[in-house]
């Protein structure tokens, strides 16, 4: 007699393969849910495979581009953005299949457990979560990789033949993250051969690629390589192409210590080639077309947005609200930037826009434009009223005057 | 009969040389105030020359490093930081010499006029400012460079023999900025030979330099080059050395459109080699040693600080206040980072600190540490209370459910 | 030969009457623009009289209610909200009449000049402003009230017969403000007979009125007095009725020192009866129906909104943006509050809403609801992870441990 | 054999009395920790009784006064401030007595459990918490008040003879809060006889009391009643006296729905007589003496402070940091305000200060002071630069122009 149906976020790796079998052992019916195109044969289980790539780019990465989303000044949120995308799809399957349980292989110390589960509770409040790495019977049984491999062999689960790298890794369309293992020592340098998505800048081409990226409403709608006239205009194609160019030139590598939602600091290494190019390009076209004070308010909302996404609150009333506001701010963020990509770096070269608030005549040193320099005297003097009053107070209250 | 004494912020260039003579023509006694070591002979004028370099580094750049000060996500404030440093010294001279007037050669459309004058009013409320580029008799007489050169020749002012670059430039210890002229077209690329402080990354060395920078209370106290064991530990020496290394590897070039305080957008090109290295290094050691929530609050204060500095409010009660708060946040920002500098980019490699809040055992995937993974279930479920309630509301209020 | 046409914001008082004649003297054609219904005969001038009351309530006061707009924690922005409403209408007349000039009687030290003119420049960028109180020929000629009265008599302008109160006053539908004159001494108490819109609480009725106010999308759509069943449901009627009830009970008097945009502190006394009731009522229904975290973000936007309105930036891209965001936040702010009004105070008594996020079962001490108290243990322990780490750091770094 | 020693936050009421006995039953040695002066005899237990009143006022209420601390625009944090004060003392006892456990009677749905425990973990990281209302064996055994009373009788615990009010109540020096029971229905009005600390405004005296309160560094150092010359200048005496006067006039009653940290909305009724007077008085003297822009930054920090205190993070690095910054801002907050207290309301009448930034001559309508009104023209025009540019953009991009 089944305890009910579980939809498991299945990665195809050793951990979730063992969890799958273990859940069956515990008496559940299990549906494996897999993102991407699998290479493993799934003879005996029910498997849902979803290609979420276009959705991921358009509904998750694009809003992050609009926001200039960066967590703690450095991390571009590649994993954080993927989690609600996967979880939403997982919940869809669970609802459709009338499954009352959702399970995942995320650990008990990380952010991903929070992201998976908050999305699940937000979209499917009655759901029950099974997180084996937080269940003593599970984690006490599988204390290390050897225990998992032994279990896998016993249950006919295909065991990876290549030795595991001495760190863990999470890859998606937007980035690869590396952490744990030998990387846990924050002063140890990352091995040179760690990176899979970007070339070592030292071995990158000796000549830049120059790209032209066109934005409309704050999202890229076209990218053209000026060297070879390659051009892309579908969202997914644009992003894949930027990954390719960024990867070739070693763009987007960072090695940071960050603050997890659950209150610990962790060391992570990330490579986000396309996302890094887009961040620079969007920052530029946004400043070119957006009013200064709107930008300032939006900047504050973006910091909030980044925190919410990092902490797993994509599907929350406040993240809905902030996304709406940020999107509103992007109405006039339109135009084209030119940039070069070279040896790990992105250089903005120029920009133009039909919606620009830049006024060449107004700002010119050689033309007066519709501007009277005398006005500046009054502007400065009024701004100084308060400063002069404060000086007076300091004079009064200080014995030395 | 003199109209009084003017202290002029004198750069040695054509503009301020002409202003100097013009002020005398108008009946003022003029004291030239010059920062740095001059090459020009100053036979007939009273000149004060100040070497403010150590003060600039310790009292202006270091607080900016503590703040991770960046204006509009990109500009490191090289000019903005120099202005209050110069103006404070200018005011000292004016007070000492009992001059009632201060003059400068800043234009009427820029930020520098504001920065010079707000500092002057804040520190010397009774002072009168003479800003020739905002006085019709002056700017109508000197409509272009030719007028200035003619005037200079007539008055025996040494005229620069090299042709002027088709842009204007402002250099100080921290950076060089380029703007105006051909750069006013925001889509035109900067000429390759524009940069003076940094090498073209394409021509930079093919091997990185690896630096170790040690911080105490959020400011660098030592830098060592691991390649050749070069080491510096005085503030000015550290900064000069980082400029040298950053410059050699082409670090810190940006091409941006920014929002001036007076409400126009302008295009600026900057190179800030040492400052860029320090920003990355400080961000890293700060995140490593500072509590997450303190960092969040401090991040908001830093955005404010950067705006204040950009807008010329260094000497204001609010900037005093914010600097104090930021400084307080830096008490435990101590430790050493290793980074490599290569082809325009700075890569963090590792960090260590006696004050770190990073706990390797706590975060380890292989050890449990003082952490019960079961706690995370409750944490997530309580965080979900609100999200589930919101879902209920949406269900109730939406006809489709 | 006319210098052109001026539209003058005309109040019917001595100042603007004199300005009107003076502008004619200077050679302008003058159109007087008057808000409200005039009692003075306007034989010889061209006059536009506009009843802007409904527009003021619906397009200016209602957004302020949605925002809980309060400047510096106390001032409800009665004058600040009226200015853009009047100016927008003034600009309409100027455009329609092809007038190139706008004039007003606001002083050179106040906020109103800024509010009038920023609105005018924003909506009619080519307009020229004539602000007589900032023109030396005008203000040197009219140094005091006597000069104005003499001028008025000479030019047949009706001179007020009642002696002027020893303070100045500005009244509109939302509030009356009092300042200047004897009120400039910040420690002097306001005279008891100063207030015109609200009764002295000491003389207010000894029994409260109890009101029921219904909101939809964050604005009141109905008010009912439970004592006598009086009920209003048109925007203007609702606001007038709340003014009546609030006024009767002495609600909404404040005596404050505030910070003007131009950097001086000024002392102002305000009475805002209806606005004060609505602020309390809206705060209540908003907290009842809005998610906590949305509220937090919106609270920050409201502070910004209040500053923008106070400083005269109603018609600005950032105020448009903030208004849009705040409005978005109000979609579910719906329901009914009951409150009593008594002796200067508003007491919330109860509230109900079909969109409430309050869940009586969930919060009940007597029922468990869908809540497991054990979850709280994990929630607290995870929140403590960071605090315990910090304690460890303090222990390590302090010599006393 | 004892399981170890527990320090129990003991209130003397039925709940904690039963918890005390139950803990002994479970095999613990129990130390009761009681704040205030007890009336009950404690024959058989070890009891610590602490008078924390002066500490509460000086180290918890005063910082809240400096901050103008208000949660969600209305709640003055009476309970939130008391909790860390009590818990810190509780931890002291636990450390001194080498107790490894702390216990309390707070429920599993409220904020107090979080506040008690976060303080305990922050100051005593190794402590174990016993929260019986979150332990199934406890809460399943004591399902209602009757179970507790039966248990009490069986164990010789004195049972309250007066029937319990149909709500729960928490009283301390600063306020009384009422919630639960019949108050859980958010539309039901609070009973007239609920309030214990403040008189019903309808029955309050018909003449105001007029107080003069003097502040130094943002905290009250003296209060004088101008009616009878009563005067207090010790912290605790000042606060008690303000409670007396505020209570007499029915000041500080609110009825709100608030957002608990754990994500539910709850209805609470509070009376905070002295705190409400101090909030108004401090707001006034602060605005009078603090620079406008410092105030703005401090206002943001205060919102943060209030959230932190409400959520139980008094003892956290970020609350330390914010308290330090707020305290810094108070250096010049000095002076005297006069106010009247009448029928539930506080009216500011006047203020004076040796550190005021208010400049009567500067702001006067009758004197020019050191102010040139012409400056305002330039100030406004420069502020309009951006608005006019935006208008241009809108004109270009909109087909209707």
Walkthrough of the structure:
The structure is a homotetramer of 401-residue chains. By secondary structure, chain A is α/β, with parallel strands linked by helices. In chain A, 41% of the residues lie in helices and 20% in strands. Chain A has helices spanning 14-25, 53-67, 78-96, 112-123, 136-141, 145-154, 235-248, 273-289, 292-311, 317-329, 360-363, 374-397; strands spanning 5-10, 29-35, 46-50, 101-103, 128-130, 168-171, 176-179, 209-216, 219-225, 231-232, 253-259, 265-271, 335-342, 345-352. In chain A, strands 3-2-1-4-5 form a five-stranded parallel β-sheet, with helices on both faces. In chain A, strands 10-9-8-13-14 form a five-stranded antiparallel β-sheet, covered by helices on one side. In chain A, helix 3 packs across helix 4. The longest helix of chain A has 24 residues, at 374-397. The mean pLDDT of chain A is 94. Chains A and D meet through helix 12 of A and helix 12 of D.
Give the helices and strands, then pairings.
The structure is a homotetramer of 401-residue chains.
Chain A lengths: L4 E6 L3 H12 L3 E7 L10 E5 L2 H15 L10 H19 L4 E3 L8 H12 L4 E3 L5 H6 L3 H10 L13 E4 L4 E4 L29 E8 L2 E7 L5 E2 L2 H14 L4 E7 L5 E7 L1 H17 L2 H20 L5 H13 L5 E8 L2 E8 L7 H4 L10 H24 L4
Parallel strand pairs in A: 1-2, 1-4, 2-3, 4-5
Antiparallel strand pairs in A: 6-7, 7-12, 8-9, 8-13, 9-10, 11-12, 13-14
Helix pairs in contact in A: 1-6, 2-3, 3-4, 7-8, 9-10
Catalytic activity (chains A, B, C, D): L-citrulline + L-aspartate + ATP = 2-(N(omega)-L-arginino)succinate + AMP + diphosphate + H(+)
Pathway (chains A, B, C, D): Nitrogen metabolism; urea cycle; (N(omega)-L-arginino)succinate from L-aspartate and L-citrulline: step 1/1; Amino-acid biosynthesis; L-arginine biosynthesis; L-arginine from L-ornithine and carbamoyl phosphate: step 2/3
Keywords (chains A, B, C, D): Amino-acid biosynthesis, Arginine biosynthesis, ATP-binding, Cytoplasm, Ligase, Nucleotide-binding, Phosphoprotein, Urea cycle
């Amino acid at each position: 007699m089944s305890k009910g149906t579980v939809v498991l976020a299945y990665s195809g790796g050793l951990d979730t393969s063992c969890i799958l079998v273990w859940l069956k052992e515990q008496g559940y019916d299990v549906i494996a849910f897999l993102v991407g195109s699998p290479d493993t044969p799934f003879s005996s289980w029910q498997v849902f495979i979803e290609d979420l790539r276009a959705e991921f780019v358009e509904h998750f990465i694009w809003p992050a581009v609009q926001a200039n989303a960066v967590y703690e000044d450095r991390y571009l949120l590649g994993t954080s953005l993927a989690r609600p995308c996967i979880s939403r799809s997982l919940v869809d399957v669970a609802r459709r299949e009338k499954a009352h349980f959702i399970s995942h292989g995320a650990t008990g110390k990380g952010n991903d457990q929070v992201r998976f589960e908050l999305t699940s509770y937000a979209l499917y409040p009655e759901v029950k979560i099974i997180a084996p790495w937080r269940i003593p019977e599970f984690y006490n049984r599988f204390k290390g990789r050897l225990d998992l491999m032994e279990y896998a062999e016993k249950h006919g689960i295909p065991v990876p033949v290549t030795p595991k790298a001495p760190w863990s890794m999470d890859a998606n369309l937007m980035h690869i993250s590396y952490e744990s293992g030998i990387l846990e020592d924050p002063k140890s340098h990352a091995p040179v051969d760690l990176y899979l998505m970007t070339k070592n800048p030292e071995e990158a081409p000796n000549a830049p690629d120059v790209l032209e990226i066109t934005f409309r409403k704050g999202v890229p709608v076209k990218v053209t390589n000026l060297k070879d006239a390659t051009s892309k205009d579908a969202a997914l194609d644009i992003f894949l192409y930027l990954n390719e160019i960024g990867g070739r030139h070693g763009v987007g590598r960072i090695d940071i210590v960050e603050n997890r939602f659950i209150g610990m600091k962790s060391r992570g290494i990330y490579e986000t080639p396309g996302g890094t190019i887009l961040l620079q390009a969007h920052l530029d076209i946004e400043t070119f077309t957006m009013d200064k004070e709107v930008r300032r308010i939006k900047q504050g909302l973006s910091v909030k947005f980044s925190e919410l996404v990092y902490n797993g609150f994509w599907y929350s009333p406040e993240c809905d609200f902030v996304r709406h506001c940020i999107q509103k701010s992007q109405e006039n963020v339109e135009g084209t930037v030119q940039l070069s990509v070279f040896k790990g770096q992105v250089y903005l070269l120029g920009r133009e826009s039909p919606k620009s608030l830049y006024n060449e005549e107004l700002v010119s040193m050689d033309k007066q434009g519709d501007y009277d320099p005398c006005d500046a005297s009054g502007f400065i003097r009024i701004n100084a009223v308060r400063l002069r009053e404060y000086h007076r107070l300091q004079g009064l209250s200080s014995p030395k005057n």
